[in-house]
């Protein structure tokens, strides 16, 4: 029981020290914030609706890029899986080639759509 009491006192002292150090460092962390970056469409000063539309457009582009990255990873996983199946004899090598050609076509199409979305919107 003495060991438990010593451990509890040590933990309490450590937590108290951590809280005091955190409280002392709050003053240091209060610095000036940087100015926000305007969206890629850069509306005129004071035009809030265009500013919001610009941020929504930029957010949509980032979301589209994230979905494209997920699609690229998924296609890569499917192609590697098909290659492993062919190595183990569960699939033919022609299926691997066909999967690779289709995957390349899908990736080129996704890249084209991303380029069009970023330049025409």
Descriptive tags:
single chain, mainly alpha, flat, 121 residues, 2 domains
In oligomeric terms, what are we looking at? single chain
Number of domains: 2
- The coarse silhouette is flat
Beginning-to-end CA distance, first to last residue = 70 Å
- Structure class: mainly alpha
Number of strands: 0
Give a structural overview.
There is one protein chain. The chain has 121 residues and is an all-alpha fold. It has 2 domains: 1-31; 40-120. Helices cover 80% and strands 0% of the residues. Helix 2 packs antiparallel against helix 3. It starts with a helix and ends with a helix.
Concise overview:
Helix content is 80%, strand content 0%.
Topology:
Blueprint: H1 2-29, H2 48-88, H3 93-120
Helix pairs in contact: 2-3
């Amino acid at each position: 029981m003495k060991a438990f009491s010593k451990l509890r006192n040590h933990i309490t002292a450590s937590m108290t020290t951590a809280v005091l150090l955190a409280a002392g460092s709050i003053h240091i962390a209060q610095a000036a914030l940087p100015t926000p970056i305007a969206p890629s469409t850069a509306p005129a000063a004071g035009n809030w609706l265009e500013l919001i539309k610009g941020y929504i457009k930029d957010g949509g582009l980032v979301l589209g890029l994230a979905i494209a990255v997920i699609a690229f990873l998924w296609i890569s996983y499917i192609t590697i899986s098909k290659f492993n199946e062919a190595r183990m004899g569960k699939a033919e090598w022609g299926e691997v080639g066909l999967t690779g050609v289709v995957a390349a076509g899908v990736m080129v199409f996704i890249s084209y759509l991303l380029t069009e979305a970023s330049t025409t919107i």
